Amino acid sequence: MIDSVSGTRTDTESRRSGRAVSSVDDAVMSMADFYSWFNTRTRANSFQVERIAFADLSGWGFDPDTGNLVHESGRFFSLEGLRVRTNRSWVSEWGQPIIVQPEIGVLGILVKRFDGVLHCLMQAKMEPGNINGVQISPTVQATRSNYLRIHGGAGTKYLEYFRPGSRGRVLFDGLQSEQGSWFLHKRNRHIVVETDDDVPVDEDFCWLTLGQLHRLLLLDHMVNMDARSVLSCIPPALTGPHDEHAGDDSFTHAVLRSLAGHGTAVHESGQILSWLTEVRARQELVQRRVPLMHLVEDGWRTGADVIDHRDGKYFDVIAVAVQGSNREVTAWTQPLLAPKQAGLLALLVKRIGGTLHALVQARSDAGMLNVAELTATVHCQPGNYADTPPEHRPPFLDYVLTAPACRVRWDVLHSEEGGRFHHAQNRYLMLEVEDELVAPDDRYRWMTLHQLTSLLPHSNYLTVELRSLVASMRSLTPRM
Amino acid sequence: MIDSVSGTRTDTESRRSGRAVSSVDDAVMSMADFYSWFNTRTRANSFQVERIAFADLSGWGFDPDTGNLVHESGRFFSLEGLRVRTNRSWVSEWGQPIIVQPEIGVLGILVKRFDGVLHCLMQAKMEPGNINGVQISPTVQATRSNYLRIHGGAGTKYLEYFRPGSRGRVLFDGLQSEQGSWFLHKRNRHIVVETDDDVPVDEDFCWLTLGQLHRLLLLDHMVNMDARSVLSCIPPALTGPHDEHAGDDSFTHAVLRSLAGHGTAVHESGQILSWLTEVRARQELVQRRVPLMHLVEDGWRTGADVIDHRDGKYFDVIAVAVQGSNREVTAWTQPLLAPKQAGLLALLVKRIGGTLHALVQARSDAGMLNVAELTATVHCQPGNYADTPPEHRPPFLDYVLTAPACRVRWDVLHSEEGGRFHHAQNRYLMLEVEDELVAPDDRYRWMTLHQLTSLLPHSNYLTVELRSLVASMRSLTPRM
């Protein structure tokens, strides 16, 4: 099914080699072997990224009529202007550059059971915007053109497992959104396929258990955004029956109970849907694409090698030249969106009746397709609010920034999509809060993890950032 | 809770007056009384609609820079141009006028049990585009401004039942799409609230059972589009346990089994979601708003009193002056979209293992928000295909047009939204087909009614036309 490639090993071989040193985890590869393999792949996939002037981009240029930054083929993506009108009380209208990419790509993870334990086929992949080059990515990240084989060529490894009529069982298949403040209506198809085949494992790939992925998710810049996002979609049934007493402590019990949908939720699921419908109907979000050159009046300036905002906030648009060793095309140039500072994604959680509840907010971003989506309790780039009056600062921002260490359940830096963003990093935090903490307004609701994940089969409910947080919790299995 | 209005009667009074003549149906009002009441309301709500020139519109005009037809307040809706690019083999790119209305309105039905039997509070309401003036509409049809009470004023009757914190129980609350070929990304909030209050019944309102509504749904131009759409969303649990042996014949049994989710579906629900995701990811649908005046190159002409296409197909845009007796504003002018001919919506069904399955297609229309939605087996304006080569005519169109009468389970003309469309009517057909009929390509799937209705809590799965068909089947209760 897959052509034999130099350096591939069969599952049986992978399993044998890993088996000898795996004891804690029923994994085909030990964590020590994983790190050796990952370091080797990082060195093998060396590449250079250099900032260049827009004039030095190859195939990319500014449209003379609009000032939009476009590719001459009309493919890939473009940078355009978006004008937004809302009924918010603070900054209700604005214009901003936005990435327009109407195409839906495919992000797939191939899974397989070894001795009954679920493993995910993950890739060590470099992206030009990554802060550290190579990160763990899904089995497949493919554009629609690759998927439909419009342009012929070698194609993407393992893509055949994700096509209709493949021999695998489709366990999840849905469209999920990406960053609403940087993308206009962008979505990717997330697909999880289980196979029983003896899969040849290419040298850039390895099988990891959910428990192993959970550990890797606690490391900075290790698991890329696409991987986190697809991992969040793995159906609970796949991770085996959640034995809610299997964890080491009562916090883990509360997480597992919450994932399994046991215990009583504060709000019924129908009430949650009604609340979100009310927010979406009440929220004005009028989006109008405008020529990028019209954003001058909003403070956006186009220079020789950067598009930026006069206040030094939000993000820049830059151009880079990439020289890599492990891509179909080994050298290319492209624009990237470079945020001015790291974002903060903090999920406040508490145990209610022994079941973990997360305080989610319904958030409306400039480029969202469906008005509002659920996201973390705090979701912002704090620097953008440095000069904002206290009453318009994001609720809980200061609470989170000053929270005592004993409340922090995890605290990790993850990268956002390195194919579009340059050094975009967010701090992901989970904080367990005191009982008396209440939601500040009607934009917030306490939900169980089961309630959150049961919305994932349908599009545009959870932001990509909230899915990252969910991924960490979903991979928390009793057998870690 | 509701101000006492001249002509209102309490539930107790309604119930008493209806009770005496109701025997077949446990309804508070007999069908005979309903027709008397409806005829009275039709006469009371008399109004005139006259075509006028665009220049005679009050508050509306063509924007000099774009040629878009807009209201001077920036509110209501506008007529703009839309350019669409797809990867279809036939007519892959085109430009067309489209209604842009980013606001989400509220369509609500208040329900209440009388002696345990569910009743819906329905309104006799006139809309300027209706072919016959007054039709049965939901309890509430409100714009967001009405809902948020932005403009003050008398307000919409019964609207308080649909606000957060009302005393009712919210039984359904979700966003649903409208016609994708005429509207850009339009959706309305559909909400069903159950009350135990003694509700004063205004003279334009009456309580009807689902069985009564089912009968009315078989009449031409009786139940308006908004009512059909909200009725389709009434949760099955509300209509009482479906006794699948209660019907008179095996066809009714098969419908009730299908609604109840009993029996085996041809495809599992996960497979259906995966199939629809595949269609959405594969289908190109690039939408770009353009000035209406740019559509000249697509054959659209703007005259003194009509915008039309040089081929005489699709639809016109016209202007009307309305003089009515039963609206807050008693006289006004507005544009309307006037289809050139009636549409055809045919749902092919068959019994598979004793459970009714419907053959739905995943259809992609110019203005859809989510690329593709499920709709009837045949969904078109046949006249638009008069000169189309046979291989590009919609599958089953000729089959339906020549089907023998014995296969027809129902055949009725319904109006589409009379507030936006002028004399827009569609023929809704349900045909039971022979066993050997198979889906022509991967755009079609056999689904049970339970599978269809379980998608309704989430947005943009079923077109408004398919929801009309579902409404007729959902209201088919054992107690008719």
TrEMBL record, chains A, B:
Signal peptide segment: none
GO molecular function term, any single one: lyase activity
Residue ranges occupied by any dTDP-4-dehydro-6-deoxy-alpha-D-glucopyranose 2,3-dehydratase domain in the UniProt entry: 32-234, 271-472
Organism: Salinispora arenicola
Pfam families, per the entry: Hexose_dehydrat (PF03559)
Descriptive protein name: NDP-hexose 2,3-dehydratase
Domain of life: Bacteria
